[in-house]
Amino acid sequence: MQRRESIHSAQRVEGLSVSDCHDYDDCICFRYLILERLRSVDDFIKKNHGLIGYTINKIFHDWNNAEKVASRANMSMDDLFQIGQIALWKAARKFDESKGFTFATYALKCIRRDILIELRLRGNTIRVPLSVSFYEQPKFRFVRGDKTATVEGETIFELITSEYNLQEEVTEKVTFDELIESLKSLSPKEREAVLMQVSGLTFQEIGKRQNVTRQAANVRYHAAVNKIKRKLIHKEALHK
């Protein structure tokens, strides 16, 4: 009940407008309302702060891993939490309980999405607007350290900050060159599916571009990921 009331309070902030101030007394009242709403925002964030920590831990599995990934994108844990707070507030404003799912479910999805998007944007030396289509993105050069990696002319994105986090599946011993080499072992369609998913496309969108169903695109993508994992794990075993 408290969460529902705080969500409704957050949504009421949208109704405030300076155009409602017609005289001095109105402006004083407006200022008072703004201060009250800001307090409600702060209270709302505090009450739901656990959702942010839970989401970060869910994405990266542990805090040390989260710190490592954040630092590679020139970010700190505080940055991740700040992004989560903004996402949480936006989720409260847009939440529609008539859709049939809980606020926590909706908020977790929003927080996860915004954190991953920001990591991808900050993790690239050259930022590419999200409005740029997948097929235009190879025109840009994505650099990791002093390397620019390509596979048959296709630019390889910073996979560590992608929607599917390969670091969850492979160890720190796997080098970037080995990761690139494993991508070369995929079929053109598999590689295309991986690149499109990494760039932010949904399986529905990937399916349309590859003229297959959403389910087929999903299966193709995960088959490709499993190939990458097997190849990397095999190489790691040989080095032991």
TrEMBL record:
SUPFAM superfamilies: Sigma2 domain of RNA polymerase sigma factors (SSF88946), Sigma3 and sigma4 domains of RNA polymerase sigma factors (SSF88659). InterPro entries: RNA_pol_sigma-70_dom (IPR014284), RNA_pol_sigma70_r2 (IPR007627), RNA_pol_sigma70_r4_t2 (IPR013249), RNA_pol_sigma_r2 (IPR013325), RNA_pol_sigma_r3/r4-like (IPR013324), WH-like_DNA-bd_sf (IPR036388). One of its GO terms (biological process) is DNA-templated transcription initiation. Keywords: DNA-binding, Sigma factor, Transcription, Transcription regulation. One of its GO terms (molecular function) is sigma factor activity. Pfam families: Sigma70_r2 (PF04542), Sigma70_r4_2 (PF08281). It comes from the Bacteria. Residues 177-227 form the RNA polymerase sigma factor 70 region 4 type domain. Residues 74-121 form the RNA polymerase sigma-70 region domain. The keyword Transcription applies. Gene3D superfamilies: 1.10.1740.10, Winged helix-like DNA-binding domain superfamily/Winged helix DNA-binding domain. This is RNA polymerase sigma-70 region 2 domain-containing protein. It comes from Fictibacillus aquaticus.
